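Subgroup meeting minutes
Present: P.N., E.W., G.H.
Scribe: E.W.

1. P.N. recapped why we're keeping a running log of single-chain structure predictions: easier to compare across weeks, and new members can see raw inputs and outputs side by side.
2. G.H. added today's entry (247 aa).
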Amino acid sequence: MNKFFRKLHLYLYLTTVFLFFLLSYPLLYIVAKKPKKNYAKIAAIRKWISLPPLFIMGFRVKVTYEATIDWSQNYIICPNHSSILDVSILDKVCKQASSFMGKDSLLKNPVTRTFFKTIDIPVNRSSRVSAYKAYKKAEELLQEHRSLVIFPEGRIDEEFPPVLHPFKKGAFRLAKENNTLILPIVIHNAWELLWDDGLAYGSKPGTIHVTVLRPISPHRADKEEEEDLEKLVYNRMKYSWENHNKS
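Output recorded in log:
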């Protein structure tokens, strides 16, 4: 698929997402006025916006499970991050309403703004105040038995092809302090179909392979063991990533 058609495919995908957003906006506007009461409805609207465009534009998601997942349990969901498709992929994989933690610039995006003003958590990682507020909001959601998606790499890196970068510590500290299971998810090849925001290489249809690893229980202990938890999750995800993406 040459660059022209990949760019065309990208713009058609983004247009389709925006059209589904426009169709859903009247209902979203109403339920967003009471986000706590309508948490599940807001999350369901996000799925309705994100999933049909995947199907329409030829993206397929094939999921492999390392173990049976109890979706009645809440988790800190830790996926790798290489594509704007990742949120939609997680909406497909996760069989429960969840909140996302993401960069505060998403408050400026017309499609994501309402979600980050209600059920999701915006954060400016360069601001200690913003990071603290995001952490407290995350704790509040976990205490309400909500699941929380945190991309532990912190961002999509500029390196291409992507690698699994070192993790930030916040997700693992949250897991330990709130005794919440970590659910590692490896999105293997979304970057091949649409890397980052797609502006560099466009996009193309295809099958995205995802592995949901076995949930990992946090161990309440000291800082050294907290770092061991981070390394354990990283090593398991890296093994799965490299095993799938090996040349």
